[in-house]
């Protein structure tokens, strides 16, 4: 996220201007198209970021969790929200008004430069997602999505588990739940990955990376 690129002290100042918001599971935090008058710093809980086409097809763009900032792009440029954000579990956040965020950036040139750099990175990440969704092979797409979620959820920490449902993973990868289930069962037999207790467990990350690279 863009605002997360700021130094710790500046983030604390921004957070100090916020008011706490509590959202129940299933609550809509932001809606696509609504004015971007604020951003939200997530303190606890997870939320889903998605868009829905005119035909009603839902495409999941990603997950956010503690420490993440949502709504920052619309907050910065004053435009409408570019996606829907819904709480996947009870979520607590700090909502900061656009005027307060902009005032800090106006008076702190270093922070403004960091935001510009982060905006460029966000554009690169969007391009990567478009490339991922364009993969012809369903199993390559699914493998790539799992690897991306591992990185997003766990950062640089070593981990082998992605806490998502098969339905959610299908919407994220552009596949049906049935296809996800079938592929995971096949990978479990090959010792690559399996679905267990509401999560995808990666058993052989190198093999999964090979599958992601082989879009045949």
Tell me the overall shape: elongated
Count of strand segments: 11
| Model regions low in confidence, pLDDT < 50 over at least 5 residues | none
Helix and strand element order:
HEEEEEEHEEHHHEHHEEH
Largest sheet: 4 strands, antiparallel
Structural features, described:
The longest helix is centred in the middle third of the chain and has 25 residues, at 109-133. With 216 residues, the chain is of the alpha+beta class. Helix content is 45%, strand content 23%. It is elongated. Strands 1-8-3-6 form a 4-stranded antiparallel beta sheet. A 4-stranded antiparallel beta sheet has the order 2-7-4-5.
Draw up the topology in text.
Elements (H helix, E strand, L loop, with lengths): L7 H9 L2 E5 L4 E3 L7 E7 L2 E6 L5 E7 L4 E2 L1 H6 L6 E4 L3 E7 H10 L1 H25 L4 H17 L6 E2 L3 H8 L3 H14 L2 E3 L4 E3 L2 H9 L3
Summarize the structure.
By secondary structure, this protein is of the alpha+beta class. The protein contains eight helices and eleven strands.
Characteristic key phrases:
216 residues; alpha+beta; 4-stranded antiparallel beta sheet
